């Protein structure tokens, strides 16, 4: 599905800390150091779509250790201004259950994002950090297309996805949710964000 060059480029880039022009620093999730932060973030009602509200720190640590050890997914805790601001998971769809629902193409990368509580609520904050992750995946990880599969009932993330240029395909059935399959190429993203600017 993917060239060796693409795989090696992603693996090399994925493991180096990276700071973008907006001051977001992407670094690999550190276990167990970062787990208390995630556990705290996952407790409120707003985190219900993440499906980890009932998990202990030990369970969360094991989930992310398994993800990091898989060889085809990576988790980042992203910092700005000296504090963690969001969690990002980037994965190869060719090794994920999503591959059963569409034809995986070379350069596809899947992603999940969980935005931590901001120090001060600012309009458009979630969209801003979402766009930062998109730029990171296109520019640093070399994605040709980004794939998402959010809960079909999560209207808030659908609005952000569409603002980023995602094109929705259809709903698919996972064990724990009905997911909306959507795709965004680099050109889709650039056109969408240029229109917003």
Automatic annotation (TrEMBL):
InterPro entries membership: Acyl_CoA_acyltransferase, Acyltransferase_MbtK/IucB-like, GNAT_dom
Q: Molecular function terms in GO for this entry?
A: N-acyltransferase activity; N6-hydroxylysine O-acetyltransferase activity
Q: What is its EC number?
A: 2.3.1.102
Indicate the segments forming the N-acetyltransferase domain, all copies.
24-190
PROSITE patterns recorded: GNAT
Q: In which pathway does it act?
A: Siderophore biosynthesis
Q: Name one GO biological process term.
A: siderophore biosynthetic process
**First-level EC class:** transferase
**UniProt keyword annotations, A-Z:** Acyltransferase, Antibiotic resistance, Transferase
Residues annotated as transmembrane: none
- Protein name (Swiss-Prot/TrEMBL): N(6)-hydroxylysine O-acetyltransferase
Which organism's genome codes for this protein?
A: Ralstonia mannitolilytica
């Amino acid at each position: 599905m993917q060239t060796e060059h693409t795989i090696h480029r992603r693996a090399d880039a994925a493991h180096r800390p990276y700071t973008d022009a907006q001051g977001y620093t992407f670094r690999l999730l550190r276990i167990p150091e970062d787990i208390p932060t995630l556990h705290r973030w996952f407790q409120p009602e707003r985190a219900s779509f993440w499906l980890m509200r009932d998990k202990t720190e030990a369970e969360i640590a094991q989930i992310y250790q398994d993800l990091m050890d898989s060889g085809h997914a990576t988790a980042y805790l992203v910092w700005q201004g000296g504090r963690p601001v969001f969690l990002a998971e980037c994965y190869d769809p060719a090794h994920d259950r999503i591959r059963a629902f569409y034809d995986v193409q070379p350069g596809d990368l899947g992603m999940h994002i969980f935005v931590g509580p901001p120090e001060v609520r600012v309009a458009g904050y979630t969209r801003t950090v979402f766009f930062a992750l998109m730029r990171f995946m296109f520019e640093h990880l070399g994605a040709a297309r980004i794939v998402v599969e959010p809960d079909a009932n999560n209207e808030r993330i659908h609005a952000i996805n569409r603002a980023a240029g995602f094109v929705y395909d259809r709903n698919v059935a996972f064990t724990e949710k009905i997911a909306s399959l959507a795709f965004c190429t680099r050109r889709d993203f650039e056109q969408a964000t240029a229109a917003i600017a």
